[in-house]
Amino acid sequence: MSAGFQAVQWNRDKRIYDAVLLAAVAAYIAAFVAYGAWATPPDNALAWIDLRIRAFGSAAFLMMTAILAIGPLARLDPRWLKVLYNRRHFGVLAFFVALLHALFMLEWYIARGALGDLPGELTDPAGYTSFTGFQFKTLGIVALLIMFAMAATSHDYWLAFLTPRVWKAVHMGVYLAYGLIVLHVALGVVQFDTSNRPPIMIGLGFALVAGLHLAAGWRETRRDRAAAPGASSEWLAVGPPASIPDRGARIVVTPEGERIAVFRNGDEIGAVTNACAHQNGPLGEGRIVDGCIVCPWHGYQYRLSDGCAPAPYTEKLATHRVRLRDGVIEVESSALAPGTPAAIRVSL
Amino acid sequence: MTGSLRRAHWRLWIALAIGIGGLLGLAVALRDPAHAGTRPSVLECAP
């Protein structure tokens, strides 16, 4: 949680996560190469390189598809939070797999003694004047550069250095990268391969990512509408104190669309912004552990009383005033300065 | 995340889904079976 640099903040869960991830990627690539060599035996060194390019390229695409599916899956079903927890390592590994895909491409040119042709190929204007004849390698290179920027900054040091807002904006580039990868495949292997497997893979992958995002967004919009009060009152009704689950929260939505997480810890009730200071994780879907709100995404902690992370950490959340009126907890829609004590005690 | 940012994302998802999905569909529709498989290895475009 601090800005101090430590290469990787390892723990047992991360080691298991990474071991499973590496094993799955290695198994996929080995199976792809074995099947490819069996179905169409490569008859020269170039064909072997070509097979590796396809194996690593398809692995990178499937990894990016999985990475982008994790977010909406976790919104739709909290059991996926376990996979979200260490998604950062997943992304970095996807970059290295994509990098190897590109390096094998260079190896192919070198093996042919034609590396010098590549810049001319990439800069030939004729490669940019038709749709299906578009220079698809350029799309892949740009996607790889975006993935590099994200992999290089995939650390809490950079998160603190850039600030969460800027860091998140940089990492939203993953959607641009994915779009470029889809087109890289659609205008590359889909055009030049007689097999129907590439179009099926890219079509299903893209449909999965788009469908999950739309489904998660639609459900959240529906929830927001249900949770938003009809009038633009300054004080928003939450419900009787007992309607807030103990050590859990209810989320209310202001008329402006801001989400507020109203937590109860026994007889203490407090309200904080629903967005975690780390990566905007949905705090209201988290729990209170040892008196602190715990973000369900990465475990960042905040005191319920004032929204401050416990020492030695320094993150602070904006809090909201709460009051009990006629047996109903109400929360003020306007936020207080981050770290302002605002929780109250009620008799249940 | 602010409400306005979330709404902007919602519009972004739809625009991306339609845009990329449309281009993907077009690329598959314009695929020329006679042309497919005739290219050199590594899908090289250069002669």
Shape assignment of chain B:
rod-shaped
Distance between the termini of chain B: 51 Å
SSE order of chain B: H
Give Rg of chain B in angstroms. Answer: 18 Å
Low-pLDDT runs of 5+ residues of chain A are none
Distance between termini of chain A? 35 Å
Kindly state the percentage of residues in helix of chain B.
Answer: 55-70%
Description:
The complex is a heterodimer of chains A (348) and B (47). Chain A is built from eleven helices and eleven strands. With 348 residues, chain A is α+β, with helices and mostly antiparallel strands. In chain A, strands 2, 3, 4, 8 and 11 form a five-stranded antiparallel sheet that branches. The longest helix of chain A is centred in the first third of the chain and has 32 residues, at 45-76. Chain B has 47 residues and is mostly helical. Chain B has one helix at 3-29. The termini of chain B are far apart. The chains are: A alpha+beta (348), B mainly alpha (47).
Topology:
The complex is a heterodimer of chains A (348) and B (47).
Chain A: H1 12-39, H2 45-76, H3 81-84, H4 87-111, H5 117-123, H6 136-152, H7 156-162, H8 164-171, H9 173-186, H10 189-192, H11 197-227, E1 235-239, E2 248-253, E3 259-265, E4 268-273, E5 287-289, E6 292-294, E7 301-303, E8 319-320, E9 322-325, E10 328-332, E11 344-345
Antiparallel strand pairs in A: 1-10, 2-3, 3-4, 4-8, 4-11, 5-6, 6-7, 9-10
Helix pairs in contact in A: 1-2, 2-4, 2-9, 2-11, 4-6, 6-9, 7-8
Chain B: H1 3-29
Key traits:
heterodimer, A: 348 residues, alpha+beta, five-stranded antiparallel beta sheet, 11 strands, 13% strand, elongated, B: 47 residues, mainly alpha, 1 helix, 57% helix, rod-shaped
